[in-house]
Amino acid sequence: MIEFKEITKSFQSGSVRTDVLKGLNFKVDKGEFAAIMAPSGTGKTTLLNILGCLMKASSGSYLFEDIDIETLNDDQLSDIRNKKIGFVFQTFNLLERTSALDNVLLPLVYADNYPVDAKQRAIKILESVGLGERINYKPSELSGGQQQRVAISRALINNPSIILADEPTGNLDSESSKEVMNIFKTLHGQGRTIIVVTHDINIARNAGRIIFLKDGRVEKTEVVS
Amino acid sequence: MKALRVAGVSANTIFKHKMRAFLIILAIVVGIATLTVVVALTQGMNKKIMKQIQNFGPDAIVVHSGGGKIRGPSTASEANITRKDVSDIENIDEVKLATSFQVALDMPIKYGNKFTTSWVWGVEPSWKDAWRRGASKGEFITDSDNDQLSKVCVIGQSAAKELFGDANPIGENILIESVSFQVVGILEKRGLSPIGTDFDNLILIPFTTASRRLMNQPLYISTARVIVRDPSRVETVAGQIKEVLRENHHLAATEEDDFRLSTPGEIAEMVKSASKTLKLFMWLVAVISPFVGGIVLMNIMLMAVSERKKEIGLRRAMGAKKKHIIVQFLAESIMLTFSGGAIGVGVGIAIALLIKLSGKPISVTWQSFAIAFIFSTLIGLFFGIYPAKKAAALDPATALSQK
Fold first, then answer.
1. Are B397 and A110 an interchain contact pair (Cβ–Cβ within 8 Å)?
2. Concatenated DSSP letters of B123-169
3. Residue B204: what pLDDT?
4. How many domains does chain A have?
5. Given B10, B45, B65, B122, which residue has the most CB atoms within 10 angstroms?
6. Which DSSP state fits B266?
7. Does the pLDDT value for residue B8 go beyond 90?
8. Which CA distances in Å does B303 have to B111, B300, B307, B387?
9. How far apart are CA A182 and CA B281, in angstroms?
10. Residue B330 Cα, gap to closest chain A Cα (Å)
């Protein structure tokens, strides 16, 4: 499903070159729930940006459902993001002054075909994460946990191949964190592929497999029993 | 359809940022209202010029005695056109008629204890056909008046009002430079002449009476008015008249004309050039105002791009392509400037109508609407494209990481 082969990423600032990823190799299979565990400042965000097709690697190859991502142009990358990836961010990234329902519908604005039942589909997803009563609430009227559930609903609206979550519980209390991780587990149970990037081992343990990063490389892989 | 959905996002954004939208619309309203007023004023002025040319007559040529540049009509004291000149002009195939008249400017007029000054013209009965203007009341100057050197006059409405107020002047006697004339008719109203003088402050007397009793010019004619058969041939006929007069006046090739010809084209040029500087200034203001509005738009939209980096990053992460971001921001600019244009044209027309109340020439036509809408849309496009491109050029990962 996803395969990183010798992925590197460097940033140049003036004469200073920083190598963030130094030859990453790993695979995530279809239907797998994987966690990428990395301490802060070790290229976690860069890895997520590459995984989410928001950024290209400096070298190496990234295969997404057998598509070589490194060969795609900007528009093709946008299509991949729109059709195949559902993002969940640490800071939720919901549009202010926009209802939960409209936030969920956002990816469909850019879809090639706008489903006739888009609204019903969005309401159904919001109901499935326990927000059926709050579809017209704006982000400022929702708790952190509720906002993250709206963000998860948004990630699901396009029925993506993979859900990419960046520290999804980073801004939540323990109760909300548990709720959010339970949603991920349920989604995994339904056969969805999920990658959670986190620095919190307790969160990572919710996944079936943990990939540990250190110094821009995979340090080890651990299967969670 | 996708473009429509993206444009829908723009409309939503406008509603969610009312103050920003208000400021942009206000700037465009000021610009477009100014443009609308100037268009209405210019068209009003053009209409007025056209009316003045119409007053002059689109098929008319006026032959003035004396050379030099165009000024007012030549007076009897400088007359050098002969009866033969006028008769030769009349013999030109394309000439329908020619009428001679003597002109005296600002003659003192007295009735009872009231004084005024007026143009006094000595005319033949054909004057009425040449000017398409006869007596609205009473009689016009007749052949017999000319044969008998009668001391009768037809009085223009401004002069009549000045001397008689609302009373009926017909049958009354007035003094023109101490010679008594009986008023036999009132001249049809005409308005302003092409050079802006009052065509109704005019008194007509018989040509012969003017030549021999009032203006002491028995030999020459000060002015002649020629009507051509085909108005489109006016300039050609004017050329023929010029040839006739130069030959009759024995002018050598090196000598300048000792007469002047006024044609509708020349009159139009003269009136237009008089208002040229004013028009230029007005257009400058009219073009600068929406331009300033455009700069305000660009400024606010650039600020919006800067403020909304995270939103742009999010949209890109959700699958928006660069072109979608461009369409979103450009549509936002165009919707705002178009709304500003619509309100601006309304405000402009209201101002134009207020100016009209003060008697200024104003003409509101569909062109005002068309120019305002085209201009406002162009402003949206021209000044909106840079912020839109800037938004689209943002790197999605960097934009998304903005605080």
1. no
2. E-TTHHHHTT--EEEE----HHHHHTT--EEEE-HHHHHHHHTTS--
3. 95
4. 1
5. B122
6. H
7. no
8. 75, 5, 6, 9
9. 72
10. 17
- pLDDT (0 to 100) of residue B69: 66
Cβ of residue A201 closer than 8 Å to a chain B Cβ: no
Distance from CA of B301 to the nearest CA of A (A): 18
A18: CB partners within 8 A, 6+ apart:
A10, A11, A12
Residue type, A223: V
Per the DSSP assignment, residues forming a β-bridge with B269 are none
Query: Looking at beta carbons, which residues of chain B come within 8 Å of A161?
Result: none
> Cβ of B317 and A74 within 8 Å?
no
Strands A33-37, A209-214: pairing kind = parallel
Q: Which residues of A touch B16 (CB under 8 A)?
A: 97-98
Cβ-defined contacts of A129-134 (< 8 Å, 24+): A129/A153, A129/A183, A131/A100, A134/A100
- Per-residue pLDDT of B244-255, as tens digits, reads 999 999 998 888
DSSP state letter for B232: G
Residue with tokens 């706008």: A114
| Chain position carrying tokens 């004013």 | B278
Question: What residues does each domain of chain B span?
Answer: 2-51+274-400, 60-229
What one-letter code names the amino acid at B263?
A: T
ipTM of the complex: 0.94
Rounded Cα distance, B49 and B67, in Å: 25
**What tens digit of pLDDT does each residue of B142-185 get?**
999 999 999 999 999 999 999 999 999 999 999 999 899 999 99
Please report residues of A whose CB lies closer than 8 A to that of B12. 98
Length of chain A in residues, anyone? Answer: 225
Q: Is-contact A162 A85, C-beta < 8 A?
A: yes
Which A residues 136-155 touch B at CB under 8 Å? Answer: 154
The answer to whether the CB of B55 falls within 8 A of the CB of B199 is: yes
Query: Between the CA of residue B229 and those of A106, B59, B83, B234, B372, what are the distances in Å?
Result: 74, 7, 21, 9, 42
Which has the closest alpha carbon to A198: A8, A30, A34? A34
pTM: 0.72
> Cβ neighbours of residue A168 under 8 Å, at least 6 residues apart?
A88, A89, A90, A148, A152, A180, A181, A184, A196, A198, A203
Q: Does position B291 have pLDDT exceeding 90, yes or no? A: no
How sure is the predictor about B288, in pLDDT bands with cuts at 50, 70 and 90? confident
Radius of gyration for chain B, computed over Cα atoms and rounded to the nearest angstrom = 32
State whether residue A4 is helix, strand or coil.
Answer: strand
Distance CA A74, CA B99 (A): 82
Q: Which helix or strand (DSSP H or E) is residue B312 part of?
A: helix B309-317
Comparing C-alpha atoms, which of B297, B296, B277 is closest to residue B285? B277
Contact B368, B40 (CB under 8 A): yes
Longest Cα–Cα distance of chain A, Å, equals 55
Residue B64: how many CB atoms within 10 A of its CB? Answer: 24
Residues β-bridged to residue A136: none
| pLDDT > 90: percent of chain B | 56
- Strand ranges, E, within A84-201: 85-88, 162-166, 193-198
Domain extent for A134? 2-223
pLDDT at position B367: 79
Which residue has tokens 């605080």? B403
Contact assessment for residue B380 and residue B334, using Cβ atoms and an 8 Å cutoff: yes
